[in-house]
Amino acid sequence: MNYTEENDEFVYTDSPESAEYDDSFMSECIPEEDGGTNAADDSVDTGQSEATSSEASEENAALLKRVEDLTSAYLTLAADFENYKKRNQKHIEEVKKFASEPLMLDMIEVADNFERALASAEKETADKESLMEGVKNTYRQFMTFLENNGLSKIPSNPGTEFDPHLHESVAQIPTAEYPDETILEVYKPGYILNTRVIRPATVTVSTEPED
Questions:
Q1: What is d(CA 87, CA 93) in angstroms, rounded to the nearest whole number?
Q2: Fewer CB within 10 Å, N- or C-terminus of the chain?
Q3: DSSP-derived 3-state class of residue 161
Q4: Continuous segment of H or E residues that includes residue 4
Q5: What is the pLDDT tens value at each position of the chain, 211 positions in all?
Q6: Count of CB atoms within 10 A of residue 146's CB?
Q7: What's the topology of domain 150-211?
Q8: What is the torsional sign of CA 103, 109, 112, 118?
Q9: DSSP one-letter code for 208
Q10: How far apart, in whole angstroms, are the C-alpha atoms of residue 144 and residue 41?
Q11: Cβ contact 154:161 at 8 Å
């Protein structure tokens, strides 16, 4: 292209040389659609896609390995837990089976005293007073054993006040000798295990006589 000065202004005029220059300039500045610099970009994109695909495959393989490891760990833990439950159940059964051993040892001592008292009673020359003393000692030993294991007798002597939480009335006897709701007689003693009434005392109580 050429510029000429006409009337103090530059005027553009085409020429063969300028056309050749323009074509070469355009070919260098504007990328070709087929071939040229676009082909190079496509090769870069293909390489990036292959790299991304390779990374995804490696990540999937790592995740699968992690899943396999966790599954194996879970199965091992589940098996260990089942074995623990079996061992624990067996231990509980053993404890239940022999939990009364200390109790039985104390009862054996009481049984020994009863056997000695019976053997003494079978003798023709048995001393009645000695026999009674032996039985009393055995009874005291037995009651001490019960108290040491948390069992105590409910107070329910005749003349004491009736308590519906501790006593069970089986009969009411009208009398003016005692106040109303007073224990007159004990048919069967009651017992408390630690803080729980396991058997109330069976008693008769007084009631006001009818006029």
A1: 10
A2: C
A3: strand
A4: strand 2-6
A5: 444 444 444 444 555 444 444 555 445 544 554 444 444 455 545 666 766 777 778 888 888 989 999 999 999 999 999 999 999 999 998 888 888 788 788 888 888 888 887 777 777 566 777 778 888 888 888 888 888 888 999 988 899 999 999 999 999 999 988 899 999 999 999 999 998 999 999 999 999 887 6
A6: 15
A7: Nucleotide Exchange Factor Grpe; Chain A, domain 2 (2.30.22)
A8: negative
A9: P
A10: 102
A11: no
Check: CB of residue 120 under 8 Å from CB of residue 126: yes
Structure-token pair, residue 23: 């074509």
Tally the C-alpha atoms within 13 A of residue 94's C-alpha that lie toward its C-beta. Answer: 6
12: which 2 tokens? 């553009």
Instruction: Give the total residue count for the chain.
Output: 211
For residue 97, what are the contacts with CB-CB under 8 A and spacing of at least 6? none
Q: Which of 34, 35, 32, 33 is nearest to 23 (CA)?
A: 32
pTM greater than 0.70 (yes/no):
no
Find out whether 143 and 176 touch, Cβ atoms under 8 Å.
Answer: no
Q: Hey, CA dihedral for 175, 177, 182, 183, is it positive or negative?
A: negative
Q: What gap in Å lies between CA 211 and CA 195, rounded to an integer? A: 42
For the chain, the domains span 2-65, 100-149, 150-211
Integer angstrom CA distances of residue 186 from 1, 142, 171 = 139, 21, 11
Which residue in 166, 203, 200, 161 sits closest to 180, CA to CA?
A: 161
